[in-house]
Amino acid sequence: MLSQHYREMCNTPSVIRALSVYATERGKEIGYENVFDYSLGNPSVPVPEAFNQAIRDLTTELSSSALHGYSPNPGNPEVRRIVAESLKRRFGLDYTAEHIFMTSAAASAIAHAVRCVTAPGDTVLSFAPFFPEYRPYINESGAVLKLVPADTESFQINFDEFEKMLDANVHAVLINTPNNPSGIAYTAETLKRLAGMLTDAEKRFGHEIFLISDEPYREIVFDGAEAPYVSAFYDNTISCYSFSKSLSIPGERIGYVAVNPKAKDAEMIVPMCVQISRGIGHNCPSSIIQMAMARCIDMTSDLSVYETNMNILYDELVKLGFTVVRPGGTFYIFPKAPEPDAKAFVEKAKKYELILVPSDSFGVEGYFRMAYCIDTEKVKRSLPALEALMKGEYGR
């Protein structure tokens, strides 16, 4: 007999993926160049040539078994050392290889981190707007995800609501900065306040509360800024990183867990991740991709196109009368829809070949997300469609 639980999950597929499929099918009808597909956050800039060269070099330098054999469960030891040294050099924390666990990108990192620091029934708090896949990441572990309502004025943390929800059953808090879908990077002031509240709550409740920081957009920040490094603010932090966006290699599925060296029982968390892998099957990411990534550890793709696209869209949306908080990073923008029902707005947008994502699944009503990781030329060509949508449907 098939699992009823997963049968029911089949009835609630990803809204983002469904819209991406629609855009692809529509593209077959009218040409994909004529579909303004802002649905899926799939990096559009090329991988650094150094990454491709690393692959080529590795295939000539190493034996077949070294290239394609299993790595140890925590990951390639030399790769873990290189990751740790990069983090120490960049952020000043005393990471060693023993604090690094290689994963199949950030999704796997979160799956491991949550299981390390929660038991079934424990609460994990996260903040709206949030990445909707957090629901299965958390709830399938046995923990329970609860959402703190959004501060829609700034999309920083709504601390008044957070304080109400921070009770003794909370054992972890999951944040994403820079944030998908809002594009907002938490400020140092926000992170200091969050760390202070968690420290006070740990004392009040008599147990650790771990901060799990989802950081795949850490390198995509605008206006010459740098995203504050979350682990520098709070000792009990586990960073979950992916190279999908920084190196434009989402299909290679490579990332890591980085345990703050000052965290409680820090030395136990990577060994626990190894045991968790035995249960969820998320172990031993690709050997050759680990090694290629390590040769490009402090490189990124040319990410400047995302800031260019953001500025074009932000200016146009403001001109058209949208309420929108200017992103500080990522490749997402999160305007308020011109009517309360975001789903209805998104359906109307399809008539103009605009594929947008309604905000309901992100934990906020009445907004929509645009993933502008597309060619700048196509962003510019989409502006008349946005204007036609607002004039044709809303008389603006």
Structural class: alpha/beta
Distance between the termini: 55 Å
Q: Categorize the overall geometry.
A: globular
Strand content is 5-15%
Secondary structure: number of strands: 12
Rg (CA only): 21 Å
Write the layout of secondary structure elements.
Elements: H1 4-9, H2 15-30, E1 36-37, H3 49-61, H4 64-68, H5 77-91, E2 100-103, H6 105-117, E3 123-127, H7 134-139, E4 144-148, H8 159-165, E5 170-176, H9 188-205, E6 210-214, E7 237-242, E8 255-259, H10 266-280, H11 287-294, H12 304-319, E9 332-333, H13 342-350, E10 354-355, E11 357-358, E12 368-371, H14 376-394
Parallel strand pairs: 1-10, 3-4, 3-5, 5-6, 6-7
Antiparallel strand pairs: 2-8, 7-8, 9-12, 11-12
Helix pairs in contact: 3-11, 5-11, 6-10, 12-14
Structure report:
- With 396 residues, this protein is α/β, with parallel strands linked by helices.
- 42% of the residues lie in helices and 12% in strands.
- The chain folds into two domains: 4-47 and 301-394, Aspartate Aminotransferase, domain 1 (Alpha-Beta Complex); 49-294, Type I PLP-dependent aspartate aminotransferase-like (Major domain) (Aspartate Aminotransferase, domain 2).
- Helix 9 (188-205) links the parallel strand 5 and strand 6.
- Helix 5 (77-91) runs parallel beside helix 11 and helix 12 packs parallel to helix 14.
- The termini are far apart.
